[in-house]
Amino acid sequence: MHYAINQSLIVAITDDKGIIIEVNEKFSEVSGYGRGELIGQTHKIVNSGYHSKEFFEKMWKTVRECKVWKGEIRNKAKDGSFYWVDTTIVPFFSEEGKPFQYLTIRYDITERKQSEEMLHRQDKLAAVGQLAAGVAHEIRNPLTSMKGYTEFLQLDETDENKQEYLEIIMEEINRVNEIVEEFLQLAKPQALTLEMKNLVPIIQNVVSLTEFEARKKNITLFSDCNDEEIFVRCDENRLKQVILNFIKNGMEAMPDGGFIKVMTEIKEDKVQISITDTGIGIPPEQLKRLGEPFFTTKKSGNGLGLMISFKIIESHLGNVFVESEVNKGTVFKIVLPI
């Protein structure tokens, strides 16, 4: 019984000030911290920065009133990775009704949260795809007419000022047309040419293509593939498009320079490609909205590029997970079957 509990539940006991006085093996296993590193610390040691100050104030208010608190918390492991836990905090109180110890029982729900995120994104993509198909065609027809007449006016116009205005009109028409094209990409199924390819040279090729641009921005870009050969069934060009998009996102998040690392890790029957930057990070409330149309954390952009990237990976039967911490950086994780 004791063994079963120790293998499934993450348990900690704290004193009335929240100082950890006892933990089980599972806590150390999931968090990556040794027992000696956890004892004497508060749970701030695994704080991911995801939840607000008010979130924890409400939690503490509940347990100090000698009530059981239940909720879901995102924690940060010693290696910097994030994990979700379903948490129950039980206060123990004295005869005077004051809490003197807290028993915290958690179990790891990271996989469930990732599945929920994936399903939510798929629903969003499906809804946007349906909307995009109708709207894009409705916009495209008048847009074609506007472009044709503007080009016609440019042929006969000799006034330089008017020519300048017409050029601005053409630029804006082309910009709208690009958005329409992106909408159409979301609306139609991804036409993939799937072949067994070695992932390592694909990653190295994208890194070498963007290395010069990175150096100009004082960014150190490098790849770290643990294996010489990792074969995946993929559309090479589409996969390159996604990796390139995530690298460029990282560059834009580091106006003063920094590091971008592209690495691979094999996990059972899957390979994970991580694109990690040391940029400004994304606040939790914005992180939840990543992949929504017309939502972007950048000064320019429309958010459709990320949606298209997510859809490409999902067409490969893979997933994309995003983790971020403000002022520390962001990680895009592409998970593909091998």
From TrEMBL:
UniProt keyword Cytoplasm present: no
A single MF term (Gene Ontology): phosphorelay sensor kinase activity
UniProt organism field: Peribacillus frigoritolerans
Keywords recorded for this protein, A-Z: ATP-binding, Kinase, Nucleotide-binding, Phosphoprotein, Transferase, Two-component regulatory system
EC code(s) of this entry: 2.7.13.3
Domain PAS: from-to ranges: 11-42
Catalysed reaction, written as an equation: ATP + protein L-histidine = ADP + protein N-phospho-L-histidine
Taxonomic superkingdom: Bacteria
Record flagged with keyword Phosphoprotein: yes
Name under which the protein is recorded: histidine kinase
